[in-house]
């Protein structure tokens, strides 16, 4: 899969997510919004698995994480009463935030192995960059 195809599929998934949020804003369109969210997530997961598989052929850890998360989420969702739904949503959102932080830490810790390798290039010590740094320090009075 080319980089353009990957970007296009991720764009389609993003549009599905945006339309899902719009659909979930009203009870009469909530079912369609939920289906759009499911479609967007399915596209994103399939494209990510295809991308990882095309590079490493090792998607076992991803599939294991999906299985464990799905089982834990299903068990928790079955035990929660409808009156506790806001607390459940808040707890799941905090887990999503924690996952985002862990992904960011991993990307910064080991950029060559992350998908962000082109964004995190080590700084080069060229004379022009050091000259700009010293000029900036002098202008701040340091």
Write the layout of secondary structure elements.
Blueprint: H1 3-23, H2 30-56, H3 60-79, H4 85-109, H5 127-139
Helix pairs in contact: 1-2
Question: What this model shows, in words?
Answer:
The model has no long low-confidence stretch (mean pLDDT 83). The chain is 75% helix and 0% strand. α1 (3-23) packs antiparallel against α2 (30-56). It has five helices and no strands. The chain is globular, with a radius of gyration of 21 Å. The protein starts with a helix and ends with a helix.
Question: What structural keywords apply?
Answer:
mainly alpha; 142 residues
The number of distinct helices, counting runs of at least 4 residues, comes to: 5
From the alpha carbons, calculate the radius of gyration and give it in angstroms.
Answer: 21 Å
Low-confidence region ranges: none
Q: Give the CA-CA distance, first to last residue.
A: 51 Å
**What fraction strand?**
under 5%
According to DSSP, the number of beta strands is 0
How do the helices and strands follow one another from N- to C-terminus? HHHHH
Share of helix, binned = over 70%
Nearest-integer average pLDDT:
83
Main beta sheet: none
Structural class by helix and strand composition: mainly alpha
Brief sketch in words of this structure:
This protein has 142 residues and is mostly helical. It has helices at residues 3-23, 30-56, 60-79, 85-109, 127-139. The protein has a domain at 1-58.
């Amino acid at each position: 899969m080319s980089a353009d195809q990957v970007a296009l599929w991720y764009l389609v998934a993003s549009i599905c997510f945006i339309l899902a949020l719009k659909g979930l804003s009203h009870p009469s369109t909530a079912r369609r919004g939920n289906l759009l969210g499911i479609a967007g997530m399915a596209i994103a997961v399939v494209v990510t698995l295809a991308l990882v598989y095309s590079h490493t052929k090792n998607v076992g850890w991803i599939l294991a994480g999906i299985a464990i998360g799905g089982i834990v989420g299903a068990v928790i969702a079955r035990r929660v009463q409808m009156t506790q739904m806001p607390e459940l949503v808040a707890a799941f959102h905090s887990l999503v935030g924690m996952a985002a932080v862990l992904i960011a830490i991993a990307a910064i810790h080991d950029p060559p192995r992350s998908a962000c390798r082109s964004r995190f290039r080590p700084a080069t010590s060229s004379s022009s960059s050091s000259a700009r740094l010293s000029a900036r320090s002098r202008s701040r009075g340091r």
